[in-house]
Amino acid sequence: MFRGDSAPPKGGIPPATKFNNWYLEVCEGRQVWHYVTDELTKIQKERFELTASPYHVGLPKFATPEESGSPFYKVPSQSHSYEEVLRKGVSFFGKLQTKDGHWAGDYGTQLLLYKKQPICEPFKLEILRYLFNVQNEDGGWGLHIESTSTMFGSVLNYISARLLGLTVEDKLLHKAKCWIQSHGNGSSCLASPQWGKVYLAILNIISWDAVNSLIPELILLPEIFPFHIKGMWSYARTVYMPMTYLYGIRFQVAEDDLIRQLRTELLPSSLADYASIQWSVYRNIVAEEDLYTPHTRLLKYAFKFFNAYEYIAPSFLRRRALARLYEVGVRKESEFTKYICIGPVNKVLNTLVTWIVEGPESVAFQKHLERLPDYLWMGTDGMKMNGTNGSQLWDTAFMVQALMENSKNREEYRDIFSLANDFLDISQIRVNHPEHWKYYRDETKGGWPFSTRDVGWLVADTTGEGLKASLLVKRHGYSLTPLDDSRLFDALNILLLMQNSTGGYATCEKTRGSKLFEYLNASEVFGDIMIDYDYVECTSSALQALVTFHEHYPTHRKQEVLKAVERATAFILKSQHQDGSFEGMWGICFTYGTWFALDGLASVGLYYENNSAVRKACKFLLSRQMMDGGWGESFLSCVRRTYVNHKASQIINTAWAVLALLGAHYPQKEPIKRGIDLLKQRQLLNGDWPQESICGVFNKNCMINYSNFKNIFPIWALARFTERYPQESPL
């Protein structure tokens, strides 16, 4: 079903534009790319990231011999000591810190997030270049860049290319069409999973009758109802509300020549007469390449009821339901996130619904258009849609902690710390959204987001990491403007509020719905999306932050903090698998989860020498070390929920494993040193590390890229190692 260990770059399609015309602009975390053909003005030079921009677009890869002296020119490193490797790594990555203090980066995800709207020529060309750079050899596209082809990815990316002006005669597009027509057991695009069918219906390629009812009226049920939408995971409900609105009004774009052509190209050739297609027979057909979460018996019965209900749905109830969906899922979600929205899927849907309801000239719609560029990232392989508007806070908080680990060199990084503190400052959410409880939102004041303050959604683990980083900068006096006590107290309050009764932490909110909700997961391609579950990573981040806070403020809410620490520790210990591992849900996978778990346990004094669970986890990690000294875990671990070796060791997996063993105070130096040696060997002359396989995941089945992890975590591992073994020399 998946390739698993493919090299990241699949295509070698050359640049479609001049790379030295691309410039990244940042402001309080916001990242927007510009294509400038004229000489830069003084204002542009002040606004643009003149050092980072050429690196992110991959300019050195296409450098002329005259340009090979660039600080980003890539050849193997000749560093001779661990200290030198660390210094070079920090020196290089420090140059990429933006003017506002964060590290910008590629957070590319699903291959299905492009939109139909006017777009300037350079952006269009680079989007097309990206699509064909990541196209599989068989002509299709996967759910992400390392999966085999799926109907979902292939159909939506085919449509994207057609909307951007390519014709079916294009060789690569024709290959994609052949893949679509030859899969789905004769149903071709009609074998798309639920979300794919929704997009096809919106685009008027298929009828809404091919989509199982999304029953808008469910939002009108009492909130105590066990399957009320309020109980859903934030990311799921914010997608399903605008999606359900569009289903409720049966919105479709106007039919034109392109739509008619797409019908001919994508629908089965056996269905030549569009008007006579029996759409309902395709509602539950899903291509085998796509199906990850089959319909449960409960969901099958529910869909039978929902579909029957559509024939008798009272119009007055439908109007009330649609009004509520728009108010909660579109209008307030847009306002609370400054029109960025929680992610790109609901961003595009909310923009469309706003256009329908408010009109193309409305202020709300124009604000949505202004924020669409926030999701577009220009990378070495072309322009893509990011999985959120970035990972700015997450990466910055990690980098601060990484540099703090090496006490010998900390003073050299004072400027980096100061600038990063400025970003931590501007990124903290300072308010609760007005009447948030009416719109299924919790308190936010004091939390940190995954990306930027404007997005308005806090996350438990990013709040934990943001609080830790802020406390460390304040403790060591590396900023003239550290966060004041009241701000840190607000962050603590959020962490205390967000802890579940299990002792664990979920993502954006406390867990609301029952696990029974998962029986109604209709996505067909994602796992565990219906409610917000407890996660080892979120719990560990919160636990470490609580411990760090208590060290700084030992009397502030002392009993509450100590109780929360005790419960979080118990949750992590309870989450350990029989083989000693901890499963990660946001990174790949058991290596990632085990690192988080061991660092969390270390924060409360549980180490290899005094705790059997820690010893068991270390034994697990050591059993997975590869012959070259590194660790390599495939994304298939996330899909199958059991450890799957990558065909080659990976820099990021190796750094996580090394950090975990060092954090656990594993007593034998040799296996740790072998991992550090691999990080040293892989470093490039300029201090960078090469991009390897994908390292992030969400909902079990969709992978995501964190381009900054290849720098942050080797630096962190080297800093921790040189602090523990300052006199150690390379093998």
Structure description:
The chain has 731 residues and is mainly alpha-helical. The chain has a domain at 125-273 and 299-384: Glycosyltransferase (Alpha/alpha barrel). The chain has 25 helices and 8 strands. The strands form 4 sheets. Strands 1-2 form a two-stranded antiparallel ribbon. The protein has a two-stranded antiparallel sheet with strand order 3-4. Strand 3 and strand 4 (382-385) form a beta hairpin. The longest helix is centred in the middle third of the chain and has 22 residues, at 315-336.
Beta fraction: under 5%
Count of distinct strands: 8
Oligomer: single chain
Which fold name is given in CATH as the topology of the domain at 125-273 and 299-384? Glycosyltransferase
Low-confidence runs? 1-9, 61-71, 111-116
Assign an overall shape: globular
Total of helices: 25
Helix content: 40-55%
Q: What Rg, in angstroms, do the CA atoms define?
A: 25 Å
Determine and state the CATH class of the domain at 125-273 and 299-384.
Mainly Alpha
Summary?
The protein is mainly α and 731 residues long. It contains 25 helices and 8 strands.
Lay out the secondary structure.
Elements: E1 22-27, E2 30-35, H1 42-47, H2 52-56, H3 82-95, H4 121-133, H5 151-163, H6 171-181, H7 194-202, H8 234-249, H9 257-266, H10 297-309, H11 315-336, H12 344-358, H13 363-371, E3 376-379, E4 382-385, H14 392-404, H15 414-427, H16 460-476, H17 485-498, H18 536-552, H19 558-574, H20 590-603, H21 612-623, E5 631-633, H22 636-640, E6 645-650, H23 651-663, H24 669-682, E7 696-698, E8 702-704, H25 709-724
Antiparallel strand pairs: 1-2, 3-4, 5-6, 7-8
Helix pairs in contact: 3-25, 5-6, 5-7, 8-11, 8-12, 11-12, 12-13, 14-15, 14-16, 14-25, 15-16, 16-17, 16-18, 18-19, 18-20, 20-23, 23-24, 23-25, 24-25
